Amino acid sequence: MSDFEVSTAPADVVRRQYLASAAGDLEALRATLAPDVEWTEMAGFPLAGTYRTPDGVTANVMERLAADWEGWTAHDDTYVVDGENVLVLARYTATNQATGRAIDVRVAHHFVVRGGLIVRFEQFVDTAKVREAMPA
To answer: With pLDDT > 90 as the criterion, what percentage of the chain qualifies?
Structure first.
């Protein structure tokens, strides 16, 4: 096992979450989340709301995105770390299964990592760009 795979450094934990998400490995993704995680999808986003527990997050966010979008991926590119806070600038790419319309939209994610686990997540995205690709 590599140092990265077991590192509790906040940026490493967050990076493992992105890698697991991109691979569709929900078990590995859940392993990055605290039992009492609070995961907030922005108001106006199709899955808006706050979800709790690793199973709640994957069932209500990742599994629903996979059902509605082909190839939903969050491409993380810039990390800003301040203690337990990790801000990631990224972009979402996907194609809506119902309309065939693609998105490529910038996004910012704020994570709080404690004890090697993500305890809080908040999404910031141009929700109008996502909704434009969805059925009316």
So the answer is: 95
Largest CA distance in the chain: 47
Residue 72: which pLDDT band, with cuts at 50, 70 and 90? very high
Spatial neighbors of 100 by CB under 8 A, at least 6 apart, are: none
Residues in the chain: 136
Q: How distant, in Å, are the alpha carbons of 69, 114, 130 from that of 135? A: 12, 39, 11
Spatial CA neighbour of 115 closest among 3, 6, 9, 4: 9
> Rounded to an integer, what distance in angstroms lies between the CA atom of residue 18 and that of residue 29?
8
Instruction: Record the pTM.
Output: 0.94
Residue 30 token pair: 């859940």
Taking the C-alpha atoms of residue 102 and residue 83, their distance in angstroms, rounded to an integer, is 36
DSSP per-residue codes, 8-56: --HHHHHHHHHHHHHHT-HHHHHTTEEEEEEEEEPTTSTT-EEEESHHH
